[in-house]
Each structure stands twice: as structure tokens, then as C-alpha cells.
Amino acid sequence: MKKILTIILCCAATAAFVSCGNNSKKAQAEAEAQAAAQAQADSIAKAKELTAMEKLASLPAEPVFDIVTNFGTMRVKLYEKTPKHRDNFAKLALTGYFDGILFHRVINGFMIQGGDPLSKDPSKFEQWGTGGPGYTIEAEFVPEYTHKKGALAAARRGDAANPMKESSGSQFYIVQDEAACAQLDGQYTVFGETIDGIKTVDKIAAVQVDGRDRPVQEVKILSVKLVEE
């Protein structure tokens, strides 16, 4: 009986050892697959950045981009006299940073706001509106650039936490109502304007929103593409 029990215990121990070995190999394979996927993603991101840098070097003074959404397309022109904001927006667009980001704040009769990378993740719903690339941009106030209908401007934190009125590194808004946004002149950097697709701005502004001004139906940026003549 003791001999039989010993054999059973040995078999159990062997099975456990084999199981542990298999689990270890599986975990290692998964780790290697994740590392390979991350390396590939990093390589693609690096290639996009290099391509973006090449295009940035040859951009016109006032480049034009199509903001393509699931509600339509808005064509915007970036201003020459706000070079920091122009170049930053262009770089983010050319590297695909905006792809998949939502317009997370919409106020009909005011403006539509997007550019927060956190809005790609539904689990971070409570944090939408707080994300960005990890840097801010120095304010570039130009008197002739006002909050007219279709104006493209940079969002930012409030004055108490941001006395220099520095802009978010990626969040922006598009003016839907000029009169309502006139009070923002000289307070938020306007760095471009909508030259086509203003109906899309109105269409997005009219969507149903919740108590936080967040669209009930996703308003997603599919891509932001450089318009090359």
C-alpha cells in the first residue's frame, strides 16, 4: 500500500512539475510576443515621426488639413503667425496622434472640443478632458485672429492653475457660435480656421449630450490628413 501511495505521490509531483513548466513556457512565450509587438509598434511610430519631420520641413506657411470624422469632414487652415501651435498641430496630425480621438465636449451654440488621447479609452471616461501629450505650448495671441465661426483654437487649463495661459499640447476646439465665444479673444490662442465643412461643425454641435456636455453618440476623429496641392 505504501509503495502504491509513493508511486501516486511521485506521479502527482511529476504532473505538477510538468504543469509548472508548461505555464512557465507559456508565460515566456506571451512575454516575448508582447515584446515583439511593442517593438513593432515603436518601429512604426518612429517611422511615422521621421516622415512627419520630413513633411514639416517642407510645409507651406499656412498648411491645410482635413479633420475627418464619422459626422463629416472639416477642412482647416493653420495660421502663419502662430508658428508654435501650427507646427505642433501639424506634427501630431502627421504622426496619427489624433486618429481615434473623440470630440469629448460639445456645447451647441458655443463650440466643439476634442484632442484628448484619453477619450480613446472608455474606461477612462471620468478623466476625459484632462489628457494630452505631456507638455503645454506658450500662448500666441494675435489680435487679428478672433473667435469667429469656425475658428480653431487651443484649449487650456484655467487661469488659477495656468496664469501664463499656456495651451494644451493637443486639445483644441472649433467655434460654432461667434457671439458666444467672443469673450475668449485674447484669452485662448486661435491658431487656425475652418475653410470648408462648417456644416459638419454645426452637425456635431447639434448632437445629444449628457449632463457633462459629452456626446451620447461617439463623435470620432478618424484621421487628420494634410491637404497637399
Task: Provide a descriptive summary of the structure in words.
This protein has helices at 2-57, 83-94, 178-181, 198-205, and strands spanning 64-69, 72-78, 105-107, 111-114, 136-137, 151-154, 167-168, 172-175, 190-196, 221-226. It has 229 residues and is α+β, with helices and mostly antiparallel strands. The strands form two sheets. Strands 3-4-8-6-9-2-1-10 form an eight-stranded antiparallel β-sheet. A two-stranded antiparallel ribbon has the order 5-7. Strand 3 and strand 4 (111-114) form a beta hairpin. Helix 1 packs across helix 2. The longest helix is centred in the first third of the chain and has 56 residues, at 2-57. The mean pLDDT is 90.
Quick structural summary:
With 229 residues, the chain is of the alpha+beta class. The chain is built from 4 helices and 10 strands, in the order H-E-E-H-E-E-E-E-E-E-H-E-H-E. Strand 3 (105-107) and strand 4 form a beta hairpin.
Number of strands: 10
Major β-sheet strand ordering: 3-4-8-6-9-2-1-10
**C-alpha-based Rg, rounded:** 25 Å
Beta-strand percentage range: 15-25%
Average pLDDT, to the nearest integer? 90
Uncertain runs are none
Shape: globular
| Euclidean distance between termini CA atoms | 89 Å
Largest sheet: 8 strands, antiparallel
Helix content percent band: 25-40%
Which class do the helix and strand fractions yield?
alpha+beta
Question: In oligomeric terms, what are we looking at?
Answer: single chain
Number of helices: 4
Q: SSE order in H/E notation? A: HEEHEEEEEEHEHE
